[in-house]
Amino acid sequence: MKSSARLVSFLFVLLIAVSSLSAQVFRIGSSAPENSPWGRTLNRLAAEWQQISDGRVRVQIFHNSIAGDEADMVRKMRIGQLQAVVMTNTGLSNFSDGILTLSMPLLIRDQDEYDHVFARVRDRLEAEINAHGLHVLSWSTAGWLHFFSRDPMRAPQELRRVRLAASPEEMKLVRAYQLMGFQPIPVPYTERLAALASGMVNAYLTVPILAAGFQWFGATPHMLDVPVGPAPGAVVMSERAYRQLPRDVRDEMIAVARRIAAGLDRDILELEAHAIRAMTEHGLEIINLSERELDAWLEEFSASYDVTLGLVFDERLYERIKDLLGAYRASR
Q: Which residues of the chain have pLDDT under 70?
C-alpha cells in the first residue's frame, strides 16, 4: 500500500512537471469521479476557461482523488502544486466556522429555504474563507442529507441505538453526534462498505447520490424520508492563483465558473431524484413519517442545538439563519 501511494505521488508530481512546460496551467484537484456531474462540470470549466483566455490559461483536472484526499489536496494547494480544490462542507469547515451551520439537522428544510438563506449569508462565509488566503471560485451542493440504516427507523430513540459511520475527516460532525447522544464510528469512505458488511456500523448520514454510487444502500436498505440538511460545497483556489489569472478576463472567468456551478445544482437535484428511484427499484425502502412522527424528529434535533451551538455550530450564524427563516416562512 505504501509503495502504491508513493507511485501515485510520483506520477502526480511528474504530471505537474510535464504540464508546466507549456502555457500557464491551472490545476484543480477533485475527489469526484470524472464520469459524474462534478467531473463533467470541471471538464466543461476547463474548456471554457481555455477559450476565454485564448489559450493563455490551460486547466488540468485531477479527478478521482488522484491528487489525494481532501486534506492532501489542500496541502498541495498551499505549496502551489494545485491551484484549486473541490471541497465538501466538511473540508470548508476548517476555514469557515459557519459552513457546517448551514447543515444543522432540520434547521433548513427544503431547497427554497436554502437558496433564500444562502444568498444572504454567502458573503460572510466567503469572507471567513478569504481570511485564510483562499478564494471561492464557485459554490454548489451535493444534494440533501438523509439517514440510511440496516433496520427501519421511525423514531429518534432508534437512531441512538445504531452505530453511525462517519468519515475520520468529519471529526466536527463526530463531535456533534456524540453531543447529541448518538454512537458515531469513524470509518473512511473507502472502507465503509466493508464496515457495513461486517456489522461494525449499520447506519450513516449521506446524500442519496453517494449511497447509490458507492452501493452502500445494499447493506442499509432503509432511507428515512426526512431531508436532514443541505450538503454545500465549493471550488476553492489559492489567493496567489486567483491573482495570476489574466486580469483582462478574470471577471469573465469567475462569472463563467459560477454560471456553470448554478447549472450543476439543477443537475444534482435531478440526479438525486434519479438515484432514489434507482435504489428503490433495487430494494431500498423509503420510510415515510406521519406528521406526529416528524414532529418528534424536529423536537429531538431542536433540543440538540443547545448542546452543539458554540462547540460545533456557529451560534451567531445560527441566529441569523433562524431570523431569515422565520421571516421567509411567514411570507410563504
A: 1-23
Q: Where are the alpha helices (DSSP H) in 33-110?
A: 37-52, 70-78, 89-92
Is residue 268 within 8 Å of 140, Cβ to Cβ?
yes
**Domain count for the chain:** 1
Q: Which candidate, 325, 136, 101, places its Cα nearest to that of 230?
A: 101
Closest CA to 212 of 283, 162, 293: 283
pLDDT, residue 3, reads 52
Residue 17: φ, ψ to 5°: -65, -40
pLDDT at position 18: 46
CB 267 within 8 A of CB 143: no
Does pTM top 0.90 for this prediction?
A: no
Q: What sections of 53-188 are H helices per DSSP?
A: 70-78, 89-92, 111-130, 156-161, 171-180
Establish how many alpha carbons lie within 13 A of residue 216's alpha carbon, considering only the half-sphere containing its beta carbon: 32
**What span, in angstroms and rounded, lies between the C-alpha atoms of 320 and 77?**
32
Cβ count near 274 (within 10 Å):
13
d(CA 239, CA 216): 37
- Pairing relationship of beta strands 24-29 and 84-88 according to DSSP bridges: parallel
**Domain encompassing residue 121:** 2-331
For residue 140 the three cell numbers come to 454548489
For the stretch 146-196, pLDDT in tens is 999 999 999 999 999 999 999 887 788 888 889 999 999 999 887 999 999
The CATH number of residue 18's host domain is 3.40.190.170
Query: Cβ–Cβ contacts within 10 Å for residue 256, how many?
Result: 18
Calculate the dihedral angle through the C-alpha atoms of 225, 230, 235, 239, rounding to the nearest 10 degrees. -160
Please tell me the number of Cα atoms within 13 Å of 41 on its side-chain side: 25
How does pLDDT run across 164-177, given as a tens digit for each residue?
A: 999 887 788 888 88
Phi, psi (deg, nearest 5) at residue 174: -60, -45
Strand pairing class (84-88; 229-238): antiparallel
116 neighbors 107 (Cβ within 8 angstroms): no
